Amino acid sequence: MDQSGCPRNFHEFYEHAKLMSGMQTKQDAFGWYCRTRLHYSCSTVCATFTEFVVPELLKRGILRLRVVTLNSDDHVDIRRIKVKGLNFGPVNGTIHCLKMYSFIGPNKNPIEVGSHNMLECSETGRVFDPTIGQLTGTMQPALFPSLREFRLDFAGVVFHLFDSSQQDIFKQKQMDVDLARMTNKPHIHPSRVAKRVVDALLSDDCGVSTYCSHCLGFSTSCSKLLKCSACEKVFYCSKTCQVLAWKGHKVDCAK
Q: Taking every annotated instance into account, which residue ranges of this chain make up the domain MYND-type (predicted)?
């Protein structure tokens, strides 16, 4: 635990939470861990990217970013990235049965509908979802080659896809700016967040050797991150995360 009593990584979280209800397996517990860490809303993350991160990149002379998580050498023009929105329902179609009398039309069962935001490059059609982990219980963002693949793999039934309006983006931007001012926390101002993101993006290792590649946590006190002995490219806070990550990592590790 750090000085404030918060777990530095998933291993520390699990050691304190494993006896709680809903934590029967490490995978179950990891889902809860992710949701406690991913506290920025999808609209905040997407609006911050287009309204602050992109201008910061342009200020530093960067117009295109390379897509490194797909089997291609595609580059995306950051000026063509826009915020998309969608409405979705749960996969199982949760239905609330409400008894009511209506003289307007036939009774219908209302279905829970949620909203979500992601980013799309209008030039290549690539879709980047930085906060999908809030729905799937993972710390990793997701990248899709097109809206079609995104819709098929989304963690819910997508009812409607649309371009977020500039008015909605401005409202979210203003709320995030006001939050930093009202809470007297200048470090959470979107402009400062954007500078930290770009600094990390332009660093030699993008921070991969300073935090766990699975839970994005830091090493336990006085211990170093564990390096994958096979590829020596990814690091873990503990054996716990290394084992959980192996199923997804073994494909890249073999390359």
A: 212-253
